[in-house]
Amino acid sequence: MFLKSALSFSRLEYLAMRFYPSSFILTIVQSFVTTGMWFFVSIFLKDYADKSLESYGGDFVSYMVIGVVFFQNAATIMTLPYQSISTAFWDKRLEVYNSSSYGIWAFISGRFIWTFLYQLIIQVGVLTFAVLIVGVNINANIPVIPLIAFYLCFVFTCFGFGLIGASNFFNLEVKQGREPFTWLVDVLARIFSGIYYPLAVLPIGIQFVSRIIPHTYALEGIRLVMLSGCGFENSIVRSNLLVMLGFAVFSMLFGIFALQKALDKAYKGNGVGMVV
C-alpha cells in the first residue's frame, strides 16, 4: 500500500514533466553548464593540482568532473525532503496528505524515487558526454559493484540528512528559503570534502574537518573506483564504504525519527498545514 502510494506520486512527477518539460530541460542544461564551468577551471589549474593526485592517476580534470557531477546529485537529493514539504504546505496540500496513513511519507518517498531516477539519467548523460566528447579519462575496468555501493550509500546519506533538515520546517518554523542544517552540510562539503580540489591543499590544522563529512568518503571512494579501477581489494575503498554505510544507516534512521517527531509535534499543535 505504501509503495503503491509512493509510486503514484512518482507518476505525478513524471506526468508533470511530460506536460511541462521546460524544468527538466533546464535541469539538464544546468548540470552540463555547471560541470563545464568547473571543467574549464580544472584545465587552468591542472598543472599545479596533478602533483597531489597520484592515487587517482594524476588527472585533475577527471578528478574535478567526477566530483562535481556526483556532488550536484547529492545536493539535489539533500534538499528534496524540505522542498517537498514546503511545496505541499504552500499549495495547501500538506494537511490533506497528513490525514492519510502514509500521505506525507508517501509523497516524499515518491518524489525521491522520481528525483533519483532522473538525476541518475542526467548523471550518466553528463559523464558519457565528458568521456566520449570532451576526453575526460576514466578507468577502462571500473568495478561496478563498489561503484553502485558507494553511489547508493551517498544518495541515502544525503536523503537522510534531507529528512533531518526537513524537520526544521516545523521545529524552527523555517517555511521558505533554505533551512540551516542542510545549508551547513552543503557549505562544509564544498570547502572540506575535496569536491573542487585535493584535500592535500588544505592546511594540516583543519584537514580533520574533512573526516566528519560523508561527502569526503563518498567522493574519495568513487574517484578511486572510477579513476584507478580500485575494488574491494583496496583497503581505502573498503574502509570508506563501511563508513558510508554507517552514515547512510544512521542518517536515514535519525532522519525518519526527527521528521516524524516534528510532524507529531505540529499535528498536536496548530496542525501541519497551519501558518504560524
TrEMBL record:
UniProt keyword annotation of Transmembrane present: yes
Subcellular location per the Swiss-Prot or TrEMBL entry: Cell membrane; Membrane
GO cellular component terms listed in the entry, alphabetical order: plasma membrane
Matches recorded under Pfam families: ABC2_membrane
GO terms for MF: ABC-type transporter activity
Topology of the protein relative to the lipid bilayer: Multi-pass membrane protein
Stretches that traverse the bilayer: 20-40, 60-82, 116-138, 144-166, 187-209, 241-259
Residues of the ABC transmembrane type-2 domain: 193-262
Transport as UniProt keyword: yes
Record key words, sorted: Cell membrane, Membrane, Transmembrane, Transmembrane helix, Transport
Alphabetized InterPro entries for the sequence: ABC2_TM, ABC2_TM_bact-type, Nod_factor_ABC_transporter
PANTHER family found in the cross-reference section: NODULATION PROTEIN J
Sequence similarity: Belongs to the ABC-2 integral membrane protein family.
Protein name as it appears in the record: Transport permease protein
UniProt organism field: Lacrimispora saccharolytica (strain ATCC 35040 / DSM 2544 / NRCC 2533 / WM1)
